[in-house]
Amino acid sequence: MARDSLSVAARLLDRSALEETAAALDDAGKVLLVGNGFSAPPLHDAQLRLLTLGLTVHAPADVQAQQFVARSLGPVDVCLAGS
Questions:
Q1: What pTM was computed for the model?
Q2: Across the beta sheet with 57-58, what order do the strands follow?
Q3: H or E element, residue 78
Q4: Would you say 31 and 55 are in contact if contact means Cβ atoms under 8 Å apart?
């Protein structure tokens, strides 16, 4: 079942978008991950993984805190939203 899910995901993956995202993350001074409900746990997992790469990552659970951090983002920073 997991193998089938990975196969489907690989076929649907937009490789150029993935490369653009990776480049943006590489250049980012700060990364904000936002999501609520069932979207939050995978984003918190992503936060830990991005932290291991040495990125400055914020993934506040509170909606108002997400807005505060978003307001502080600069032109090279990245916001990834999960839904």
A1: 0.83
A2: 57-58, 31-34, 78-81
A3: strand 78-81
A4: yes
Q: What is the mean pLDDT of residues 60-83?
A: 95
Q: What is the largest CA-CA distance in the chain?
A: 41
Check pLDDT > 90 for residue 77.
yes
**In angstroms, rounded to a whole number, what is the distance separating the alpha carbons of residues 50 and 72?**
19
Which amino acid, one-letter code, is at 4?
A: D
Rounded Cα distance between 55 and 19, Å, is: 17
pLDDT band at 2 (very low <50, low <70, confident <90, very high): confident
Number of domains in the chain: 1
Please answer whether residues 58 and 33 qualify as being in contact, where contact means their C-beta atoms are separated by less than 8 angstroms. Answer: yes
Query: Tell me, what CATH number does 19's domain have?
Result: 3.40.50.10490
pLDDT at 13: 87
Structural domain harbouring 9: 2-81
